[in-house]
Amino acid sequence: MLLAYLPILIWILLCAGLALAIVFLSHVLGRKRPTGAKLSPYECGITPVGDARSRFPIKFYIIAVVFLVFDIEAAFLYPWAVIYKKLALVGLLEMAVFMAVLLVGYLYLWKKRVFDWED
Amino acid sequence: MNEYALGQGLWEMGFAAAVPFTLVALSAMAVLLADLWLLPSQKRALPWAALAGVLLSAASVAFLWNEEATGFGGAIRLDRFSAFFAMVFLLGTGLVVLLSSAYARREGVERGEYYALLLFGTSGAMLMASAVELVTFFLGLEILSVSLYVLSGFFRQRPASAEAAAKYFILGAFASAFLLYGIALFYGASGSTTYAALRESFGSAAFPYSHGLLALAASGLLLIGLAFKLGAVPFHMWVPDTYEGAPTTITAYMSVVSKAAAAAAFIRVFGASLSSLQQDTSAVLWVLAVVTMTLGNVVAIAQTNIKRMLAYSSIAHAGYLLVALTAAGEAGYSSVLFYVLAYVFMTLGAFGVVSLVRKGEGGADAGAEALDISHYSGLAGRHGLLAAAMAVFMVSLSGIPPTAGFFAKFYVFSAAVRAGEVGLAIIGVLNSLVSVYFYMRIVFLMYMKEETVPVRGSRSRAGWVALAACVLGTLLLGVLPSSFARLATESIASIF
Amino acid sequence: MLDYVWLVPAFPLAGVLANVFLGGRLGKKFVGLVSCASVALAFASSVAVLVEMLALEPGLRHVERHVFTWFLSADLKVDAALLADPLSVLMMVVVSGVAFLIHVYSVGYMAGDPGYRRYFIYLNLFTFSMLTLVSGANFLVLYVGWEAVGLCSYLLIGFWYEKKAAADAGRKAFIVNRIGDFGFVLGIILIFRMFGTLDFGSVFPRAAEMFPMGSPTITAITLLLFLGATGKSAQIPLYTWLPDAMEGPTPVSALIHAATMVTAGVYMVARCSALYVLAPVSMGVVAAVGLATAVYAASIGLVQNDFKRVLAYSTISQLGYMFLACGVGAFAAGVFHLMTHAFFKALLFLVAGAVIHALAGEQDIRRMGGLRRELPVSFWSFVVASLAIAGIFPFSGFFSKDEILWDTLQARGPLVWGVAAVGVLLTAFYMFRLLFLVFWGKPRHGGHVHRPPLSIDVPLACLAVLSAVGGLVGAPMLFGRHFIKEFLAPVFAGGAGHAASAGHAAAAAAHVSAGAGAAHPVSELGMALVSISIAAVGIALAHRFYVMSPDVPRRLKEKFATAYSVLLNKYYVDEAYGAIFVRPLVAFAAGLWRYLDALVIDGAVNGSANTVAAGSRVLRRLQTGRLQDYALSVALGAVVVLLFWLTRW
Q: What are chain A's domains?
């Protein structure tokens, strides 16, 4: 049974091998002339200022979570739509229940003013 | 398709099995939405709405009491076992709602989400007890756990509460990973996730490991995940911190409902489906039971905070449950059911008293919760009934007749003896001897010491009703245990 | 009436309920009246049961009454069932009778106490529990009564909980008893495992069929049960709670010592005689523990200065004799001594209470004396009781104690008898020491002597009569019949097979008919004379020491200073228990708490205010350390479980 996955294993090994080989080769063949500027993080960009753990509004988290929920809803709808006919009435009802539950969440979010960006 | 045919079709698909927890979940949503439109002065209605949902669901369970149904392609099952546990969860939830109606308002956490999450958690617990398929079980577990993560951090302004939630969440996620990994491995090994497949994979008792290392590892991981939910040592570390920091009513809910749900799932998975592994399961559980009982009881002695003491006591009681699970067999498992029922009354009662007692006039923090054990000094003089109720719960928790706790322990230990685990029973009895010390210390303080800090008991009528129900239940199970024990035996018989 | 045995425990319970729900509203008079009446009714109904039972053929005197089915599980059915047989009925009569007198006495004694109602509720509950204990028809009912008695004693000993000593004593009684109960529960579990039932009616008859003589199982069961008995009946090594129990009100001491609590162990051993006779080793242990306790406690009693404490050690010692009797197979003699002891010990305590009451709380006998004239009723009662306990003919204690000594001689030979006789000497000595110090000589107390009320004197007089003549029911030499032994014979039928018991019965019969114990070199009559003379020597010694030349004790005290202080400090057993058991356990718990909990877990209190002050640096370090520790613990546990699990493959 596992034999069927052999090509995938070979493919993974090939990918990893190639990546490792490139890094290794560039490490061996490349010239190294380190300077202070080159060794600093984000060497090609702006000088970092302050702590990376800066606080930003919690709205971003909420939006991310809400996005996730409705994204999954969409992901769930596609396969359902494909076999919609086979599932018949019961399938429709089940999806309706699912949507209704989501709707409750949506109403809740709305009333909690999650969608009002200005506050 | 006419209406009748549709109803018939749904029935044949086993939708009946989903009715009880669906009703709870629906009322949770109703409470959640109602909260959005209610005026602040109308929010007093929320606990009653939640209670109505609980009663509705309980009525449906009663209605379906003699039915058997398997629904959703063999994912959930309605039988006497799930009905019994549904009743236990609903009873626990109902009592917690009553206790909360006073507590939550005074502590300023009376929001719709509080009751909605309680109900969601209950629906998750009910799903756990009726699941006969691993992913469905996991779904129930996560619904319950996520609700509890939020609820234990419900005092958003208090660091202790946030800490309780964070610790519970991180460790809970850790344990969930074990479970999920176990489920995944099992799916890999057998291509199915139903309990029936589980039972087939492990074949006969003579040769239980025919399905290979993968399935065996899967069962081991499931064992670990469930032991965490039960709060067994060494997976117990979250218990004291979380119980101490969470709102008291939520602590009560956690210790009763989440523990009972874990026990229910354990019986379905290891008792009914993996019975061929019973000897090895018992070997592991034996050790877990001994360390859990002993650590819980011994460390409880040194506690000064009553919630923390009750937390260790609940670890110890998880140990007694593990004794019963070690004993296995119908006697062992039915003693689990009886224990769980007894535990609902006595533990909810004890936490209930804690939630109703607060510091009285005179201190800087008058009105705050009285959580130090010394606050219980002389309670009998000022609040005779409250102290008497607490004394009943303490007597019951330490297993002295004629209370529920005595028979709970009696059934557990006699099941252990019957299963040939005499040593374990002796360790258990010794442990309950140790436990008398710290339970009776409370009684001693209440009745035989002078008051040190003025405390006052809440006059919440709902809270008193809940306490009265707990006292009655504790005594009823202690005086007339036979019909409840029969109920437990029948429920176990329905899944074997 | 036999059908209504349940009325016997039901009356006191009704009294409890009436006082709980109505007592507060209806006042003191009502409370006292209801309590006394309920116990009086219990007594009346148990007497009625006794009368009806006497009318039955001896073989039919075993009536079980099922009250309700208590619980069922797969193969276990336990009824809340009551049993009326000669043993339980005798116990009911003694318990309810003595308890009734103590109730009446309490009305006067506790009159001024603010906890009057609470006191009577507990007292009734105590009586109810003990009556349940003796009337249960299976081990579980017995166990319920057993635990309830323990709980009530805890409440009553600690009744004056404002006093630290009282509260501590209550707790000590409870905890020491729980240690014994542990053995008792294990014994019951083992019985259930072996017999599959807990009913007396099925366990006892089957024991002899199922197990051979000396079977290890039965030995284990009986030893475990006996551990329970040592706790409840204050025998070595679990006797330490009883002397401290003096902190309770004096009538409670009387109740505990005479009727309710401590006799439970003797009753239980007698009830299980069918098991004990199958286990000679256990019988030996029971006899040895009883004998050792009898002499040991008596020796402590010699030098104690607290009135009630002397009596407490005397109870321990007398209980030792009862166990000695059981251990040599003379169960009927043990129960007989239990009965006579109930009379005179209740009396002694009630006199003690009257004296203490009269002297406004004084308990030290060195500050009493000369009370003969002021308290005549108490004095004469005390004389009767002392003669009874010392075993002087024809007072009640003589018959029962002499019988025990005789049986001991028959069963275990002269050496054991000699040790037991030393106990008799000590008993006579300390009792008369007490009598002389309290009632003779010059008054050494300062104040005025209160006259006791009638409700105190009447029970004293009743008990004095009982103590004087109560032994006659077991006086074969006078009547040619041993009523108690005949009455109890059906219960101890199994025990009758035991050599000593049967031998004794035969000997007694032979003695009565022929006038001499033909089967034995020494006649019972002769031995009785010997034991009376031993007691008389003890009395004479006490008289010489404490009346004739009062400085002898002082000189002895100086000469044997070490021995004296060892006795005075009760052989330092409390201290030893403290050092060996209590402190290490507390230290262990505290250590676990400090290192495991406080260091690893309790730093978590970071949420609470006190650790906020401990500084955020420590706090943060602890917090992160913590959760990782927790996760580590989960992970390690998981690894161990999984490793074990995978080796099963």
A: 55-119 (1.20.58.1610)
Cβ-nearest to B407 among C71, C182, C636: C71
Angle, to 10 degrees, between the axis of helix B384-397 and the axis of helix B404-418?
A: 0
Q: Report CA dihedral (C85, C86, C92, C94) to the nearest 10 degrees.
A: -170
* Alpha-carbon span C356 to C307, nearest angstrom: 9
Residue B345 confidence (pLDDT) above 90: yes
Q: Residue B406: which of C140, C226, C132 has the closest Cα?
A: C140
Asked whether the CA dihedral C496, C499, C503, C504 is positive or negative, the reply is negative
> In which domain, by residue range, is B488 found?
16-493
Burial A34-45 (b: 16+ CB within 10 A, else e): eeeeeeeeeeee
Task: Give the DSSP H/E element, type plus range, for residue A60.
Answer: helix A59-82
Q: Is residue B171 part of a domain?
A: yes
Nearest-CA distance from A104 to chain B in Å?
Answer: 7
- Any idea what DSSP says for residue B66? T
Q: How does pLDDT run across B46-91, given as a tens digit for each residue?
A: 899 999 999 999 999 999 888 888 888 888 999 999 999 999 999 9
Q: What is the mean pLDDT of residues B357-370?
A: 76
B213 inside domain? yes
Position B7 in a domain: no
Q: Which residues of B touch A107 (CB under 8 A)?
A: 33, 36
In this structure, how many other beta carbons lie within 10 angstroms of the beta carbon of residue C293? 26
- Tell me which H or E stretch contains C71: strand C63-73
- From the number of C-beta atoms within 10 Å of its C-beta (0-12, 13-18, 19+), residue C25 rates as exposed
Q: Angle at Cα B39 formed by Cα B33 and Cα B40, nearest 5°?
A: 105
Distance CA B330, CA B345 (A): 23
Round to whole Å and give the CA distance between C40 and C124. 11
Helix (H, G, I), strand (E, B) or coil at B56: helix
Q: What letter would DSSP give residue C66?
A: E
The whole-angstrom separation of Cα C533 and Cα C541 is 12
**B360-364, B404-408, C340-344 — which one is most confidently predicted on average?**
B404-408
Interface contact flag, A108 B36, Cβ < 8 Å? yes
Is the omega angle on the peptide bond into residue A7 within 30 degrees of 0, that is, cis? no
Distance CA B256, CA B253 (A): 5
Interface contact flag, C171 B444, Cβ < 8 Å:
yes
Whether omega before C394 lies within 30 degrees of 0, making that bond cis, reads yes
Q: Tell me: the pLDDT tens digits for C58-89? A: 777 777 777 777 666 556 667 778 888 888 88
Q: Is the dihedral of CA C198, C204, C210, C214 positive or negative?
A: positive
Token pair for residue A24?
Answer: 């290794």
Residues B90-110 have pLDDT tens digits of: 999 999 999 998 888 888 777
Helix (H, G, I), strand (E, B) or coil at B481: coil
The verdict on residue B10 lying in a domain is: no
Mutate one of B32, B117, B156 to test the A interface: name it (highest A CB count within 10 A). Answer: B32
DSSP SS3 for C481: coil
Q: How many domains does chain B have?
A: 1
The interface predicted TM-score (ipTM) is: 0.86
CA distance C162 to C94: 33
Report, in angstroms and rounded to the nearest whole number, the Rg of chain C calculated over CA atoms: 27
Q: Are B404 and B477 a contacting pair, CB within 8 Å?
A: yes
Q: What is the phi-psi region of residue C515: left when phi exceeds 0, alpha when psi lies from -120 to 50, beta otherwise?
A: left
C185 close contact with B: CB closer than 8 A:
yes
Q: What is the 3-class SS of B309-357, one letter each residue?
A: HHHHHHHHHHHHHHHHHHHCHHHHHHHHHHHHHHHHHHHHHHHHHHHHE
> What is the dihedral angle through the alpha carbons of C250, C251, C255, C257, rounded to the nearest 10 degrees?
30
